[in-house]
Amino acid sequence: VNYGVTPASVHDRQVAEDLLENTTFPVVLADLGYLSKVLKQHLTRKGYCFWTPLRRNMVKAKQHNHWRLKAERRT
User: Fold this and answer.
1) Can you count the helices (H) and strands (E) in the chain?
2) What positions does the domain Transposase IS4-like occupy (predicted)?
């Protein structure tokens, strides 16, 4: 587990790669603050399995936001 404390003006996506820099675990569960197609593509190319919930109005959000995955992310 890795974490960082930043000012409120810094967006979550800006520090995501720094947090993952020395991480060997390939699965990343993140919250909606990290939802970004570009970030997901970038991390997938680096070998990470990157999961964030989808917004309710996004296509297939109900299937994607399965309660078990959301519960795992909260632990």
Assistant:
1) 4, 2
2) 2-74
Residue located via tokens 């569960």: 29
Q: Are 20 and 2 in contact (CB under 8 A)?
A: yes
The whole-number pLDDT of residue 52 equals 81
Closest CA to 26 of 54, 5, 45: 45
- Claim: this prediction has a pTM higher than 0.90: no
Alpha-carbon distances, residue 10 vs 5, 7, 61, 66 (angstroms): 10, 6, 27, 29
> Residue 22 has which token pair?
């020395």
Contacts of 2 (CB under 8 A, 6+ apart): 19, 20, 22, 23
Give dist(CA 62, CA 47) in Å, integer: 26
Whether pLDDT at 20 is above 80: yes
